[in-house]
Amino acid sequence: GQQLNQSPQSMFIQEGEDVSMNCTSSSIFNTWLWYKQDPGEGPVLLIALYKAGELTSNGRLTAQFGITRKDSFLNISASIPSDVGIYFCAGGSSNTGKLIFGQGTTLQVKP
Amino acid sequence: NAGVMQNPRHLVRRRGQEARLRCSPMKGHSHVYWYRQLPEEGLKFMVYLQKENIIDESGMPKERFSAEFPKEGPSILRIQQVVRGDSAAYFCASSQARGDTGELFFGEGSRLTVL
Predict the structure, then answer these.
(1) What digits encode the pLDDT tens for the residues A37-50?
(2) Cβ separation A98–B99 shorter than 8 A
(3) Which DSSP category does A81 fall into?
(4) Chain B residues with CB inside 8 Å of A99's CB?
(5) A49-80 pLDDT tens trace
(6) Which of A33, A42, A104 sits opposite B108 (nearest CB)?
């Protein structure tokens, strides 16, 4: 079945640093989304991407839909303590009508 | 504008009992998805429903698990004769369009603990 490989698995950074994480797949997706999950909560949508090559920003967050439609990355600039959490990428396929999620990247920020 | 509502937030069951998890989608959303999350893991797709219809249940275990989304009322995920391995967080998500074209909005999850 379709799988997403998300990396890195975890990151421990200093406040103020920039962060980059990515997702790759052997399958083509027609949408890419990035979610953040805080402990004990449900995932919250951060950015949605709908076109290959699309670059979208949401505040300090920037995400891109890879030109091959098989990958996406998320950048967080000038990290702050509240950025701590688990970040998930998700790919949507028109064949299935559903989202497939990556394994998550756990981000810890040291003040 | 209420988001996706799930209840109960926490549920404790003994082995062999039944668990019923409920999900009310966002207003205007007719597509509902259930995902399971084990500790320290990602979200695994279980089932996709659209009012009164199961569209894709490829992620549902063949036995003991069932889901419905009736014309009136919330979507229900039902687990019969629970076992310890069913302990997990179960998340419901809804969307206005198909999940591959629309954005999924998640509830806060129902955490099932099987003793």
Answers:
(1) 998 899 999 999 99
(2) yes
(3) G
(4) 33, 45, 99-100, 104
(5) 999 999 999 999 999 999 999 999 999 999 99
(6) A42
